[in-house]
Specification:
Blueprint (H helix, E strand, L loop, with lengths): L16 H5 L6 H11 L3 H12 L8 E3 H22 L7 H13 L1 H7 L5 H8 L4 H10 L8 E8 L2 E11 L8 H4 L3 H20 L5 H18 L3 H4 L8 E3 H7 L5 H7 L7 E4 L2 H13 L2 H15 L6 H16 L7 H25 L2 H23 L6 H12 L2 E5 L17 H17 L21 E3 L4 E5 L14 H18 L20 H19 L15 H21 L13 H12 L2 E3 L1 H10 L5 H9 L3 H7 L19
Parallel strand pairs: 3-5, 6-8
Antiparallel strand pairs: 1-9, 2-3, 4-5, 7-8
Length: 670
């Protein structure tokens, strides 16, 4: 997944897109200086003036090209919601539901006036829990709506990818990752203190006379959960996390959880077998359930439901949630505008309903056709590159080519849209709308269990500024909103487009051949299709790349985790290299014209650097380094390019330049 978008909690004002995030004006007199600076830091050469002149907006933890493009998409969604509200909509239609959902979410006065009354039915369900079985049933009943210590996912089975299966995974922490509970360091300690205060505030606002003591009890319970959870590195391992079990086998592994009650509550009681992502965690959770008083679990669930619904609770809850999630964890100075929070909520609830209107207004058919041509060119370049790999033998090469030939490409939007007829949206019930929408989506997924996989399904909406590769379907997917300037400009020259959106396409193709995607074959099955020698050679290259990124230290005392980010770093490196090869193929043997003193190759690499234009607050970077498989943007620029011979030739790097890397040390994977 390329993840050029900010997180859902940090979405960002389209008016500043071109002023703040446009490519720098590269006039001919400045070209020589620009080229010289690129030899020392390509990211700063392309983005330095912008970095110096552009503050991070107060409501954001980071800012850059992706954030501005998200702002543009959000503003378009806002206009869609407002337009639907200005026009008569058929009762029960998706247009009416979008309009009602949006305006109800916006009505903070009504939310404040309602107080905690909308939450009372949920709190009553917690109060009614009188046994471990009832607790497990509550976890299942709230699946998809309120976090619990275990999460159910419905996805294609990794070894039978034509069939949907259930996977259960560790979950349920209030801090971003287990490391926030377990690691030393001022940043982690500050986050822990802020979280304990937040727990106390939530319980106090909910009328708990013993809020401080109860907050400590909840934190102590979460500390136990964190202590037995797997690391992010282990949790992204496709082989380690595929652990098929029958229900009786799961019951023997984790006897303290009433799994039949849990799955009945989650509407997935008809499963024959499932996968347990982290078996030791499931066993440890079972023991924690048995030894922890039910009263503590009920406090934990009370906190989880308050936190999950804070944006649609009265203002003191909203401000407390921002003080923790926004200020303490990400360094933001003020909340996002309410309208933008509302567009995010509508996207989650009725995303394809909004998306159908979005693409009709903002994604012309010629964009889809141009993107398909770019994808086709990247596929040709990738195939040619596989043919020339010096480290891979012919047997594995043939299987890699077979996998590449079986890729599915999805561009812009789905060919079949989801239905929302059974989703109830009620005027004036913002919290109820949120809970019903989350549960509606979970139950849609639950109905898929055991069925044949719907290969037309999309896992992102068209208005999402992102892209992804799905290994079990062997597909690459590019939503409409990322296929827009400055990533993709239908009027721009090939050097610009191949450096930006071309590298994104190459990135997603390369995910099928990264350290995890490479373990799935062309049919989407988790199976070893490598010879032992070729896999050893591939892993050796990956180890070298991990070591390179281990050396980067974005925040003093906190380095990039080369193993956690390895899949994304392989995709960045290989995607950029393939995009460059495809760009050269597009020239048909000719050289690109020199523009403003820059060759086509130089413009290609500068375009790539601008596509990662971003600056972030330290708190946000710490969170990224801890739990995100993507390295910070500057390292996603400079880290890959130092391994490309073409970069060194384009800018004439030499020993002594910061970006110089001896040819023998450069890493070439695909």
């Amino acid at each position: 997944m390329v993840v050029r978008t900010p997180s859902m909690l940090a979405r960002l004002g389209c008016a500043v897109l071109f002023a703040a995030c446009a490519r720098p004006a590269l006039a001919a007199p400045a070209a020589a200086d620009l080229i010289a600076r690129a030899r020392h830091d390509l990211f700063v050469a392309a983005n330095g003036e912008w970095l110096d002149a552009t503050p991070i907006p107060a409501d954001k933890s980071a800012y850059g090209v992706a954030y501005a493009l998200v702002d543009r998409a959000d503003a378009r969604v806002q206009r869609i919601c407002e337009t639907l509200g200005e026009q008569p909509q058929a009762p029960g239609s998706v247009g009416q539901k979008i309009s009602k959902y949006y305006r109800t979410y916006l009505d903070e006065a009504a939310i404040d006036a309602a107080g905690l009354r909308p939450l009372e039915p949920l709190l009553d369900q917690i109060d009614a829990v009188d046994s471990p079985s009832a607790l497990a049933a509550l976890w299942g009943r709230w699946m998809g709506a309120v976090p619990a210590p275990v999460e159910t996912q419905v996805t294609p089975d990794a070894k039978e990818p034509g069939r949907y299966r259930v996977t259960i995974r560790q979950d349920g922490l209030g801090l971003p990752d287990r490391d926030y509970y377990l690691r030393d360091g001022a940043g982690f300690a500050k986050a822990r203190d802020a979280y304990r205060r937040y727990l106390g505030t939530l319980l106090t606002l909910a009328g708990d006379a013993e809020a401080e003591a109860h907050a400590q009890a909840v934190y102590a319970l979460e500390l136990q959960l964190a202590g037995v959870q797997w690391s992010q590195v282990d949790s992204r391992d496709a082989v380690k996390t595929y652990n098929p079990r029958t229900l009786p086998q799961l019951a023997r592994l984790a006897r303290g959880v009433d799994w039949p009650a849990y799955f009945t509550g989650a509407h997935t009681a008809n499963i024959d077998h499932l996968s347990v992502s982290q078996p030791p965690y499931a066993a440890a959770l079972s023991r924690i359930v048995q030894r922890t008083p039910l009263a503590t679990w009920k406090l934990y669930q009370r906190v989880r439901v308050l936190d999950a619904n804070a944006p649609v609770l009265p203002q003191p809850f909203r401000m407390a949630a921002f003080a923790f999630h926004g200020q303490a964890l990400r360094g933001e100075e003020q909340p996002r505008p309410r309208w933008q929070q509302a567009t995010a909520a509508v996207d989650h609830a009725l995303g394809e309903g909004v998306g159908q209107i979005y693409v009709a207004r903002h994604f012309p058919p010629e964009h889809r056709a141009r993107m398909q041509a770019l994808v086709d060119n990247l596929m040709v370049a990738y195939g040619q590159s596989i043919d020339t790999l010096h480290w891979m033998g012919p047997r594995t090469q043939a299987r890699a080519k077979d996998k590449l030939s079986r890729y599915t490409t999805k561009i812009g939007y789905p060919d079949r849209w989801r239905e929302y007829g059974d989703l109830s949206v009620v005027d004036g019930d913002a919290l109820g709308n949120e809970m019903r929408a989350r549960r509606f989506e979970h139950e849609r997924l639950a109905r898929q269990v055991g069925r044949a996989v719907d290969r037309s399904e999309w896992f992102m909406t068209p208005q999402t500024v992102n892209a992804y590769y799905e290994p079990s379907l062997n597909e690459i997917v590019f939503p409409a909103a990322i296929l827009d300037a400055p990533y993709f400009d239908i009027t721009a020259d090939d050097a610009t487009n191949y450096g930006a959106i071309g590298a994104t396409i190459g990135h997603e193709i390369s995910h099928g051949f990264d350290d995890q995607g490479s373990q799935f074959d062309g049919g989407g099955r988790l199976v070893n299709w490598w010879t032992r020698a070729d896999r050893k050679a591939f892993d050796s290259l990956g180890n070298r790349l991990a070591q390179q990124f281990d050396g980067y230290e974005p925040v003093p005392g906190h380095r990039v985790n080369g193993r956690l980010t390895l899949g994304e770093n392989i995709a960045d490196l290989s995607g950029l290299e393939i995009a460059y090869k495809a760009y050269r193929l597009s020239l048909g043997g000719h050289e690109a014209p020199v523009v403003d003193g820059l060759t086509g190759d130089q413009r290609f690499f500068l375009s790539y650097a601008v596509s990662w234009r971003e600056k972030a607050r330290d708190a946000r970077t710490l969170q990224q380094l801890t739990s995100d498989p993507h390295a910070p943007a500057s390292y996603r620029t400079n880290g890959p390019v130092v391994n490309l011979d073409a970069f060194h030739e384009a800018f004439g790097t030499r020993p002594g330049d910061a970006m110089y890397k001896p040819r023998a040390e450069r890493i070439h994977i695909w």
